[in-house]
Amino acid sequence: MATSFSATLPLHGSQENRLLLPPIRLAPPPSSFLGFTRSLTIPSSRRLYHAHAARRSPVVGVQEVVKEKKVTNSLLITKEEGLVLYEDMILGRSFEDMCAQMYYRGKMFGFVHLYNGQEAVSTGFIKLLTQSDSVVSTYRDHVHALSKGVSARAVMSELFGKVTGCCRGQGGSMHMFSKEHNMLGGFAFIGEGIPVATGAAFTSKYKREVLKQDCEDVTVAFFGDGTCNNGQFYECLNMAALYKLPIIFVVENNLWAIGMSHLRSTSDPEIWKKGPAFGMPGVHVDGMDVLKVREVAKEAVTRARRGEGPTLVECETYRFRGHSLADPDELRDAAEKAKYAARDPITALKKYLVENKLASEGELKTIEKKIDELVEEAVEFADASPQPGRSQLLENVFADPKGFGIGPDGRYRCEDPKFTQGTAQV
User: Fold this and answer.
1) Is 198 in contact with 245 (CB distance < 8 Å)?
2) Residue ranges per domain, the chain?
3) What fold, for 79-384?
4) pLDDT for position 27
5) How much is the pLDDT for 120?
6) What are the backbone dihedrals phi and psi of residue 325, each rounded to the nearest 5 degrees, phi first?
7) Distances (CA, A) of 196 to 140, 183, 240
8) Is the pTM of this model over 0.70?
């Protein structure tokens, strides 16, 4: 089905061939994201020349990606798809609410960043992926891991620092990883995961084009608005476009980088525009609507699988809690928080399912009850699981454990049982 992705627009190029037509003015979205009162300006025709051949790249405006489907009044999802989306979003919300309880009871340590309010982004993208596709996350990574298929038990146990966690208790809240599910990690430093995701996408392309393997795997890199002023972001956009890598860069723009407003820290707050600057599509979508996110994700993932290269997607969303559970959340205006709370993505999906007779209230309540029981069981499992042994401290640190050197007795320190007990002479 045609969407704005397929309405390709030529971009800019050499001085002698540059053609600038009057800009197209699009009305701002009804929800007035970012508080914009002005119209969005999208150049209608510009030319971009690669060193060897001309490239065409679409530029897509806010909330335009489902325009054609709205006109036809066709449903965007089937009942089965709707129930999968709803269950995944409920899992993310219920899990994070439970994390808050456990954190304040002293079951978790360090910083814990919750995803409440942003579920439409994770669900909209990840539930379209296969197990062999890769996901790279940030420090706000619990729900990305759950959406990718990592069990609630494994994620909760990791948060509890237990050996049954997906990283055996050594990763904690900000470093969820699962080789089995190609969840390539949460990363504590902003922008840190984008080069890893770019490398994963390069691996897929290398397998397909050099090793001649049947590989259509794609990578989705999630990061926030604060990351988009960092160098790695631009370097990786350039490399991904240059090599036409199968990657989707997903900006979860929740309007705040800890306590810094996106509008105060960025010269041009419309992040999606940075995509066309590197020769890839840039899309700006309502990140509080899982169906709109899903339609954009379908197009971006399909392009990547076809070998057409990367896409930059800006999902404007909002977190319902502070930056972390240690954040009193005093900087954001109460009216702003209330405005976005009224646009809860789970409530919106529930309304869509019921009004379009895709699901009954009873069916949705059954899902909610099922998830509540699943999360409760995950807590019980994590609480009962053992702590990692002290010997585990030396694992996954150095490739060669003998790098710890030789002790006074002439033996390798790592072979001394007292070494991991903290009593060896060093």
Assistant:
1) yes
2) 79-384
3) Rossmann fold (3.40.50)
4) 38
5) 98
6) -70, -10
7) 17, 11, 12
8) yes
